[in-house]
Design goal:
Blueprint lengths: L2 E7 L13 E6 L2 E7 L3 H7 L7 E5 L5 H4 L2 H10 L6 E5 L2 H12 L8 E5 L7 E4 L3 E7 L7 E7 L16 H8 L4 E2 L5 E2 L1 H4 L8 E5 L8 H4 L5 E5 L7 H7 L4 H11 L3 E5 L9 H8 L5 E3 L6 E2 L12
Parallel strand pairs: 3-4, 4-5, 5-6, 12-13, 13-14, 14-15
Antiparallel strand pairs: 1-2, 1-16, 2-3, 7-8, 8-9, 9-12, 10-11
This protein binds zinc ion.
Zinc ion binds next to helix 2.
């Protein structure tokens, strides 16, 4: 099953060094989810060849401009392109009033239903649960209410053991794949374990931006296959990180190590770094399976997630 993330913006608040503000697309099969929507996200979606219309949900972490200034442009373009399919938007409560005011002032009546879901930052909260995915908010520590997001796939159907496929009547196969025992017409019961194998473990991805170190974060993202964590500064600027409630690369890597994740992707780089090698080196010294996120590159999420270029 195709499950991957495409970072569209890897810069911090000031766009510089060719980096754009935060935005990512998470793709699960044919569904696209947008995570954060910094200024210019719609152009970068276009450059990445990703269809606006297939985005079904948008998750906004917080209301600093580098994470949400692109939302009005995106909504307006969806409207102008004639979108009729509903869109779900998850974000901090004040975002609803910001959008409503801009729509009202510009006399825009969206052609599609926009469903707003307020995300609180008191405790992790399940935001979405369907047959394929569970999305949970992760309260973070920043200067305004901020949450990360944890995307966890649901376990897939149990694969049938090939040698038994023909002995299971067609109309009972979906029940067996769902884990039920097989009851034959003569009343004999064949235990499910004899007919199926375990499905691959469900994959998980966590997005954590922006945040100072948070005491519970590692436990909330324990064992995820891929963790994106902001790394605005190197340890050299730890005081600046503390003051602005951001993380250093070393702090991001410490979360990855404590949580035992598969791989770490760094992002949200301060505009002061032209060369990002010092951030990467600092993180790899603590958590070797680390990569710098690159805009437009596709990162698969799964049991074998490993950071590109780390040999894993
Ligand atoms: Zn930011």
């Amino acid at each position: 099953m195709r499950f991957e993330v495409i970072p569209l913006g890897t810069g911090a608040a000031l766009p510089a060094q060719g980096r754009s503000p935060s935005a990512q697309v998470l793709r699960l099969e044919d569904a696209l989810y947008l995570i954060d929507c910094g200024e210019g996200t719609q152009e970068r979606l276009r450059m990445a060849g990703l269809s606006f219309m297939r985005i079904s949900r948008v998750f906004i972490s917080h209301l600093h401009g580098d994470h949400c200034f692109g939302i009005m442009g995106l909504l307006s373009t969806m409207h102008l392109l004639g979108r009729t399919r509903e869109l779900h938007l998850h974000g901090p409560q004040p975002l609803k009033a910001i959008i409503d005011l801009q729509l009202q002032a510009s006399g825009t009546w969206l052609r599609f239903p926009l469903h707003f879901h307020a995300v609180g930052d008191d405790a992790p909260q399940v935001l979405l649960e369907d047959e394929r995915l569970t999305v949970t908010s992760l309260p973070l520590r920043h200067r305004v209410p901020t949450t990360g997001f944890l995307f966890r796939q649901k376990p897939g159907p149990r694969p049938l053991r090939p040698e038994h496929v023909n002995s299971i009547p067609h109309y009972r196969r979906s029940a067996v794949k769902a884990g039920h025992d097989l009851v034959r017409d003569d009343g004999t019961v064949v235990p499910n374990a004899a007919l199926t194998t375990d499905p691959p473990p469900p994959a998980a991805y966590a997005y954590c931006s922006d945040t100072a170190p948070h005491p519970h974060l590692a436990s909330w993202v324990r064992g995820v296959d891929l963790l994106y964590h902001e790394a605005t500064f190197t340890t050299h600027l730890a005081a600046r990180a503390r003051e602005t409630l951001h993380s250093t690369a070393a702090q991001a890597a410490t979360v990855a190590r404590e949580a035992g994740v598969g791989a770490l992707l760094l992002g949200h780089f301060s505009s002061r770094y032209k060369d990002l090698t010092p951030l990467l080196d600092e993180a790899r010294a603590i958590f070797p399976d680390t990569a710098l996120s690159e805009e437009g590159r596709c990162y698969p999420i799964g049991p074998r997630s490993s950071a590109p270029g780390t040999g894993g």
